[in-house]
Structure prediction request, 404 residues.
Amino acid sequence: MADDSPFSSAASSSSPTHTSDDVLTQAAQTRLRTIIERIERLELDKAAVANDLKEVYAEAKGEGFDVKILRKIVRIRKMDAAKRTEEEALIDLYLSAIGGL
Amino acid sequence: MADDSPFSSAASSSSPTHTSDDVLTQAAQTRLRTIIERIERLELDKAAVANDLKEVYAEAKGEGFDVKILRKIVRIRKMDAAKRTEEEALIDLYLSAIGGL
Amino acid sequence: MADDSPFSSAASSSSPTHTSDDVLTQAAQTRLRTIIERIERLELDKAAVANDLKEVYAEAKGEGFDVKILRKIVRIRKMDAAKRTEEEALIDLYLSAIGGL
Amino acid sequence: MADDSPFSSAASSSSPTHTSDDVLTQAAQTRLRTIIERIERLELDKAAVANDLKEVYAEAKGEGFDVKILRKIVRIRKMDAAKRTEEEALIDLYLSAIGGL
DNA sequence: ACCGAAGTTGTATCAC
DNA sequence: GTGATACAACTTCGGT
Prediction:
């Protein structure tokens, strides 16, 4: 049961010169760096899209639409009817159980 | 596989006397009320603390301190602390990843 | 004090032919539809990026990297960046507080 | 128009020995420290209350209550009737404007 | 499959 | 009133 996974045991710091990281092979370190870079690149993309969304909402707001309501619309359209009904029923139930609003 | 959770299913209002549902047992209704009360009490506490904070900032402002700067200092100090915590957690994680200490 | 914002007030459904309200002008309705579409398109993009991220993590995991550690590293690096930004902002604030540079 | 506010102009660093902070008088520095401490103390309180809340919800969940619904209940009770009605009306309006769900 | 934790999103408050 | 910031809620993900 050989173990070549990057984070597993294997010995460390042969010398005090090394501040860190000789638990990982050179290859694994490079690979790790690549992975982190890909992730951070994707997070940038994500932020960009999020920003675009913000802009659309801002623009809509500028034209007089109510952003809060727009968001609710989008959310409701995403949610299926059954779930919605069920949730409303539970709310009513709880409310009446504690004696109304 | 008994089910004694407050909702389950079961039908409602056997009699018109009850404005509220009795899908929840009397006990569950009481319990629910208690929970809601505790929550609402805690939210009051929370509001009180928030108010105290506002007052401290207002007082500081009255003495000529720049609130925006104050907030930023507090924020940076919080970030410091958080980062330290995260770093410690990372170390623990590394340690466990290589098979405990 | 003209009001050309999409909602305002005004009454509804002059005729039973219309299932929907005509409180919104035809133009506003079209605009609204366009906005919703743009939003939903962007949410698709967002989901796609999120999916790519998941894949990178999954792949890394397949190579033996610990996902939790990876995430923490990314998180700490993000905090670093944020902290640096905050610190620069603080300096600017200090500078303006003492009357510019 | 004398200016004795802590953050205002006044000259600085007479010597390179001082890394910082002689823009503020000794008294102001002490005062600043006190303020920061009070703020951080209050933030601890705030965190404690938030934690208590979490516990109440967790406990309720343990007894079979649906946390999501509990939160909605609390929110609804806080929100006044008028607002709620208005919001629902707007949602219906928008929905019908774009031709239903 | 569930549970707890983390991240993300939406909302409200506050200062300008 | 608008933007920033802080708060709270909901969803997702990884682990068990």
Residues 74 and 92 of chain D are 24 Å apart (CA to CA). The helical segments of chain D are 26-62, 67-78, 81-97. Chain D has a mean pLDDT of 82.
